[in-house]
Amino acid sequence: MMLDGQTLMAALCLMMILEGLGPLLFPSRWQRIMRELVSKDVASIRRLGMISVFLGCLSLLLLS
Question: The pTM is what?
Answer without folding.
Answer: 0.67
